[in-house]
Amino acid sequence: MADSTRFLLAGVMGWPVMHSRSPLMHNYWFGKLGLAGAYVPLAIEPAGLAAALRALAPLGFAGCNLTIPHKQQAMTIVDEVDEVAERIGAISCVVVRRDGSLYGTNNDWRGFIDNLKQEQPGWRADAGPVAVIGAGGGSRAVCYGLLQEGAEEIRLVNRTTAHAEAIADEFAGPISVLPWVSRHEALEGAALVVNTTSCGMVGQPALDLRLDRLPQRALAADIIYIPLETPFLAAARERGHHTVNGLGMLLHQGRPAWKLWFGLEPEVTAELRERMERSIAGQ
Ligand code: ATR
User: Fold this and answer.
1) ∠71-72-75 over CA atoms, to 5°?
2) Sheet arrangement for strand 219-222
3) Average pLDDT in the 275-279 region?
4) Among 43, 94, 23, which Cα is nearest to 257's?
């Protein structure tokens, strides 16, 4: 539980890190809850990650988030990696325990699922087949979350089929891998399609995916949040689909982090979303 007599500290380690919108979000929560605290961007070179993580405890940090490129390397540094992070293969959140030891977990999957639930009340993972495009770190978190929520059929498609097969083998759930050439057909009868590739991100080519097989009622989600609306989401919106962007995933993975660091669960409010959207749009 947050101790009102202490200055609460957390941050995000990345390289580079100054583009991160996490400080805006967490500092909004400190203000909203009237708590004395700060969430800081920490630019840490990969070679300095171990020293930086070990410095969290003496500096009085409750913990930190990790972003590119530290999510995998941190697994070899922290004292305990929980089962979720182990399965996803990456740590997104580090917690400094009472004895100063470091515990690593992954809240990205929670962010993805909780955001879908907030954006589409009544959403269920078992409402129909889910097409997941991409098989990188983001895909692993999304697939893990969908399986946790009881998805009955995940159609996984990736440019490099072997990467998708590795996820299907490791997760051992109802995941079927389709070749990249079949990606358009993978949307046939789907209730949800998720882009987890880097396609559509600022500076990257758009995702090459035809939506003509996607049923009208299907939901389209992207885990990218810069830009807020990727060409894939824009095309889905124009076809009349409900769309969900990646910003909510970022917002919602912050809540379980706060629970672990400070014993609190701040709200993802419309005001917070607007502030983040304004910041991203203005960049
Ligand atoms: P992250 O951890 O953010 O998911 P990543 O691990 O680098 O990032 O994964 C990027 C994903 O985008 C992968 O699925 C990648 O496909 P490959 O496994 O074949 O590399 C996918 N990707 C990147 N550029 C792509 C492109 N031009 N077309 C299709 N898929 C692409």
Assistant:
1) 100
2) 175-178, 154-157, 130-133, 192-195, 219-222, 242-244
3) 96
4) 94
Average of pLDDT values for 127-152? 97
Strand-strand pairing, 8-14 and 37-43: parallel
CA atoms within 13 A on the CB side of 194: 26
120 Cα to the center of ligand 1, angstroms: 27
* Distance in angstroms (rounded) separating the CA atoms of residues 237 and 45: 39
Residue 1 has pLDDT above 60, yes or no: no
CA distance 227 to 195: 14
Task: Report the C-alpha gap between 204 and 80 in whole angstroms.
Answer: 36
Q: Is 161 in the pocket of ligand 1 (CB under 6 A)?
A: no
Rounded (10°) CA dihedral 255, 257, 261, 266: -10
Q: Is the CB of 184 under 6 A from ligand 1?
A: no
Query: If we measure between CA atoms, which residue out of 21, 138, 9, 15 comes closest to residue 73?
Result: 15
Do 104 and 50 touch, CB atoms closer than 8 A?
A: no
How confident is the model at residue 282, as a pLDDT?
A: 86
Ligand 1, residue 163: give the atom nearest the CA: 18
Q: Give the span between the Cα atoms of 87 and 82, in whole angstroms.
A: 9
Specify the pTM. 0.94
C-beta of residue 91 within 8 angstroms of C-beta of residue 66: yes
Q: What does 93-109 look like in DSSP terms, one character per residue?
A: EEEE-TTS-EEEE--HH
Q: Closest by alpha carbon to 90, among 112, 110, 107, 106?
A: 106
